[in-house]
Amino acid sequence: MPTGSGLSGEPREQFLVLSSVRGEPFSLPAGVVMEAAIVFLPIAALTGFALGALVELTALRLPSGQPLLARPACPVCHAPLPRWGWLIPRRCAFCRNFPRHQLLSQTAIAVLLAAAWWRFLADPLQAFRVSLAILFLALIARIDWAHHLIYLLTVIPALLLGLLLTLLASPAAFLAALVGSLAGALLFALFYGLGWLLYRRPALGSGDVLLAASIGALTDCRISCTHSPSA
Predict the structure, then answer these.
(1) Cα(139)–Cα(179) distance, integer angstroms
(2) CB of 75 within 8 A of CB of 63?
(3) CB crowding 6-39: b at 16 or more within 10 Å, else e
């Protein structure tokens, strides 16, 4: 005799509760989600590897003022590289330099993006938001590490996109991101003021304040999936 959602004696199938863009829950069998993850995660990793190359290229071109779409060149001897040489790290034919930093950056971003989509596969909007945070923070960190500069061109789009994505999720998520953004900005603004008060010069730049606001907007990560047996 039928009992609940299946026949007696049959194993109960596990379901994964998903969140739609408007926050309304719906369910899919956990096995279906697992199969989708097996197919999709390699795609996420390859996409992350390609986007990591774009992050590295932007980190090299933005401080130097070179056009982003200019032909790639070796960072050591400046010899021209193949048109798509920025996408796959390769040894320079002239000075034999190998871009290890680029390979490490691309690999790290590929792993982080795959992990983000694995963790938030049940909530694509949240996964996209975390991926966006990874890419922007990786770009900002790469430039700051090499040049000790934070460009408004990198932090302002991160701040605006982070707030926009939470607005698409729900008003509550937008409010939480806005509060986090303001809290981060006010905290670093306090450090900025203390620098003037103690040392008569700024201890931080305006880019640091906006970076704190961007992190507050991008890192309101919420867990929106739970496993439960079907009733």
Answers:
(1) 24
(2) no
(3) eeeeeeeeebbebbeeeeeeeeeebeebeeeeee
Beta bridge partners, 18, equal: 26
- Report field, pTM of the whole predicted structure over 0.70: yes
Residue 107 confidence (pLDDT):
96
**Per-domain residue ranges of the chain:** 26-124+141-147, 150-231
Dihedral sign, CA of 23, 27, 28, 33? positive
Pairing of strands 25-29, 14-19: antiparallel
* CA distances to 75, 91, 92, 106, 216 from 100, in Å: 12, 10, 12, 10, 31
Digit-coded pLDDT (tens) for 36-51: 777 888 999 999 999 9
Nearest-angstrom CA–CA distance, 101 and 88: 12
